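User: For my dataset I need records formatted as: sequence, then structure tokens, nothing else. Please produce one.
Assistant:
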Amino acid sequence: MKLEPGNKIRVYLILRPLGEGGMGEVWLAQEDLLERQVAIKRLNPSLTQEAKFVQRFQNEARIQAQLTHENIVHLIAFFS
């Protein structure tokens, strides 16, 4: 799925891009039910064909989910 403003992915309405890096893009989105803004990080589709990059992305999510600090964003969900 191509992310662009106005599209929905699960319960998130895509608002605008926030940035991009070596592994993917980060988008600002609005969560329907809780009416809160969240950041969605998307792995670059060209990297999804390589198992090592998918594993690295999943490992990053697992590590981030264990971290709690006021300067680190909280991981809410992880999905394909």
